[in-house]
Amino acid sequence: MSIDMNAVSFLSRKQVENIAEQVLQDAERKLDVSFKPPIDIETIAEHYFGMQIIYRYLFTVYGIPDLHGALLIWDKKIEVEESLSLGRTNFTIGHELGHWILHQHLAASTNPDQFALLDLNSLNKSDQRFPIICHRNDNSWGERQANWFSATLLMPAKAVRDAFKLNYSSPQVFSQSVLESFNSNYHSEGNSKSLEDIEEFWGVLSVVDQVKKSGRFSNVSDQAMRIRLQTLELITHKRVNCRIL
Where in the chain are the domains? Predict the structure, then answer.
């Protein structure tokens, strides 16, 4: 049976972000720590969730390419691909915590009519304690929910907006084609760009860099921050005439 992370319960982005914000607030209260950027996601995972984090080459463990992380629910362990960058490592830990909060009940189900969380044929049949395994380019509904959760933990909306307002008085507007180009190979051969597009492309990266520096988001990737800024509509392709609230 294959993964069907599109079959998870419907939760909007806003609902997931609210859950993540509540987790962050509760972690601060219980650990008596004020989590400010750069958010220490390992402390949250280990001391609030009680998880053990293990770094290793996941292909040698599961024989599946392009894995970033795995959540072993019954053992309360998060496995992270050892070769990832710092930003991707932190995002992966947050992502697996998202699965723990949002989806662990699915793996624990004994109802044969419910879906499995991964292809059971890829694992040892004698081990019935299957983990949630996360592929690099999986864009299914459940994986997107886990991404939203991680983004909110590492880049809380207020902290991002505050850092943005230190540099800009209104959302930064770029062409839709340039923003969409970040989802493809921008510099691919034969993919010619105008000088204006190239300037806009570097303009987006400049905004990302300024916000990361001003907000001390040193442990997240440029890609994660760009997506977060677009989600919060601080980087947009729509003409916005109002000032930032």
Answer: 5-154, 157-236
* Cross-strand pairs, 134: 69
Residue type, 32: D
pLDDT at 111: 39
Cα distances from 60 to residues 55, 81, 173, in angstroms, run 12, 10, 44
CATH architecture of 5-154: Orthogonal Bundle (1.10)
Q: What is the pLDDT of residues 86-128, one digit of tens each?
A: 999 999 999 999 999 988 766 654 433 333 333 333 444 334 4
- pLDDT tens for each residue of 137-152: 777 888 899 999 999 9
Cβ neighbours of residue 77 closer than 8 Å, sequence gap 6 or more: 51, 52, 53, 54, 71
Neighbours of 40 (CB within 10 A): 16
Contact assessment for residue 20 and residue 152, using Cβ atoms and an 8 Å cutoff: yes
Centroid of chain to Cα 206:
21
94: CB partners within 8 A, 6+ apart:
41, 149, 150, 151, 153, 154
Our CA angle for 193, 195, 201, nearest 5°, is 70
Find residue 21's DSSP bridge partners. Answer: none
Helix axes 222-231, 86-107, angle to 10 degrees: 60
Tokens for 215, please give them.
Answer: 């907000």
- Which runs of consecutive H residues, i.e. helices, occur in 47-172? 58-62, 86-107, 141-154, 157-165
pLDDT of residue 140: 81
Beta strands per DSSP E along 25-100: 52-56, 67-72, 77-81
Residues 3 and 140: beta-carbon distance below 8 Å: yes
